[in-house]
Amino acid sequence: MISNPFIYEINTRVWLKNFNNKRHNAKILDVPIYYWKSLKNLGIDYIWLMGVWKTRKTTIKKYCLTDDLISEYRKALPDFTNADVVGSPYSIDKYVFNPEIGTKEDFVKLKIKLNKIGLGLILDFIPNHFSADTTLLKSKPSIFLQASIDFINQDKETFFESPFQKEIIFAHGKDPYFSAWTDTIQINYFNEESCGYMSEQLIKISEYCDGVRCDMAMLVLNDVFEKTWYDILSAQNYNKQKDEFWEIAIKRVKKKKPNFIFVGEVYWDLEWKLQKLGFDYTYDKKLYDRLIEAKPYKLREHLLAEDDYQKKSLRFIENHDEKRAIRVFGEEKSEAAAFLVSTINGAKLFFNGQFEGQKIKLPVQLSRAPFENTNKNIKQFYNTLLSIVKKKIFKDGKWKLIEISPINQSDESYKNILTWSWVFKSKVLLIAINYSLEKSKCIIKEQFDDFGEEVIFNDILNHKSYTWKKVDLIKFGLYIELEKYQSRIFLIKKEK
After folding, report:
1. 279, 263 in Cβ contact below 8 A?
2. Side-chain half-sphere exposure of 192, counting CA atoms within 13 A
3. pLDDT bucket at 421, cuts 50 / 70 / 90
4. How far is 422 from 292, CA to CA, in rounded Å?
5. Which residues contact 495 (CB under 8 A, 6 or more apart)?
6. Which terminus of the chain, N or C, has less C-beta within 10 A?
7. Spatial contact of 145 and 189, defined as CB atoms under 8 Å apart
8. Percentage of the chain with pLDDT > 90?
């Protein structure tokens, strides 16, 4: 398994339109090999194709053309029409590939093609729900959370009547803190049949890819599920499962495919729990929030977590659920945030359009995006950054947070600077970033005993070199001065 992997997310239904021609709409095997190779050359390890499963067109008119959603569509795509609305990729019929994207045979071929050039393929697994109109309501109705007529009388937003059997009431999918997702139906995780069925779906999916990104993974934890649906579970006499679904399901998949990876969208401080249950990586939303907040001391505190936890954290500054990074952070700060997440321990997630500085967050129900010009400054920044962080030292090296000191007792600006190192064999990368709006200074008193009498610091971001005497570094430390949101990466070598 790759250490500290780079994962590249693609909104498949929208992105495929880039490869259309006059004769036909592009499918997944129409994407030329040079495109995949270009991502590999940037340092990407896994491609996450978001939204490849078959959806139900009947849900569009029922659930996807509400006034609030139409308002969101118009903000992102002013000339949208109803034909652009294809429904949420997280409201699926079942785990069958969307024929407009490709067949299962196409995805087998795609996986082989990607693996040959060193890329892995990640697909969606949506554990909590299916489409409210799923055809599984005909063949597998018992796997869903059923309720009595009393519940729908009290709450028509959360409960609905089966579209196939009148007077049979089911729950829409939801989490305990927000309204239900009305285009979905909730799976019952206090039902052994449901757990077994979903585990089988994971086994099935694993034949076509190298990993899964699990949507809202914490919702199926026994305690969370009980909290969300306590009234119904009590009324229906359902009992909490003895074991956690994830522990059983992940073990089943990894028994067959030990290197298959599980990426969990996880919140509410449940990341560590999911990691212990077998997840290889869990979302680090807390880091994202702290990057927005821009208080360096909180970022430093966050990076003091145990090394095992850090290695299994997925860092990001944008994805399909969040606003575009350049909108949230602005240009300078987004570069600083990207530099930070790309040079610390753990997996990294990048979103299609991020490297080009795209600004528009597209609702997932849409199949078309507006044209956006490439931000040349952002493009150049990522080209430079990725050319550095794809190096072996960031994969196989050892990461360590470094302590710093003020240049004098009255200067508090050192608190704005974050520093860490990567060590691999005789090479050391010393990294510093000023994550603030003011010029800041600090002293790094790292151990320099293993270096020669003269230590050469190669600034690989700015192509400059600085020479310090080891005796001065040991006595005084390394002086660093950085402008707002400025970063440095120094390559230094130990004595052999």
Report:
1. yes
2. 3
3. very high
4. 25
5. 426, 450, 451, 452
6. C
7. no
8. 85
The Cα-based distances of 322 to 85, 124, 175, 360 in angstroms read: 20, 17, 18, 10
Q: Among candidates 131, 140, 43, which has minimal Cα distance to 93?
A: 131
Residue 352 in this model has a pLDDT that exceeds 60: yes
Q: What is the CATH number of domain 396-493?
A: 2.60.40.1180
In this structure, what DSSP letter does residue 414 have? G
Q: How many CB atoms lie within 10 A of CB 396?
A: 13
Check residue 453 and report its DSSP letter.
S
Which parts of 338-416 are beta strand (E)?
Answer: 347-351, 398-401, 404-405
Q: Do the Cβ atoms of 250 and 278 come closer than 8 Å?
A: yes
Q: Are 152 and 160 in contact (CB under 8 A)?
A: yes
Burial class (CB in 10 A: 0-12, 13-18, 19+), 474: middle
* β-pair type (169-171, 159-161): antiparallel
Residue 2's nearest CA partner among 315, 394, 458, 389 is: 394
Domain ranges in the chain are: 6-132+191-395, 396-493
* CA gyration radius, the chain: 25
Distance CA 389, CA 326 (A): 21
pLDDT digits (tens, 9 = 90+) for 210-228: 999 999 999 999 999 999 9
Q: How much is the mean pLDDT over the chain?
A: 94
Question: Coil, strand, or helix at residue 39?
Answer: helix
Q: Which residues have C-beta within 8 Å of that of residue 281, sequence separation ≥ 6?
A: 261, 262, 263, 264, 312, 313, 314, 346, 347
Give per-residue pLDDT as tens, 129-157: 999 999 999 999 999 999 988 898 889 99
**Taking a C-beta distance cutoff of 8 angstroms, is the pair 420, 400 a contact?**
yes
How far is 135 from 163, CA to CA, in rounded Å?
Answer: 10
**CATH class for the region spanning 6-132+191-395:** alpha beta
Residue 480 phi, psi dihedral angles, 5° rounding: -125, 130
Cβ neighbours of residue 467 closer than 8 Å, sequence gap 6 or more: 454, 455, 456, 457
For residue 73 the two structure tokens come to 């569509």
Place of tokens 């729950």: 171
The position carrying tokens 């009234």 is 231
State the Cα–Cα distance between residues 120 and 281, nearest whole angstrom: 15
Tokens (6 digits) for 347: 């997996």
Query: Is-contact 422 399, C-beta < 8 A?
Result: yes
DSSP code of residue 220: G
Distance set, CA 176 to CA 180, 216, 240, 283, 319 (Å): 9, 12, 17, 19, 23
Most distant CA pair in the chain, distance: 83
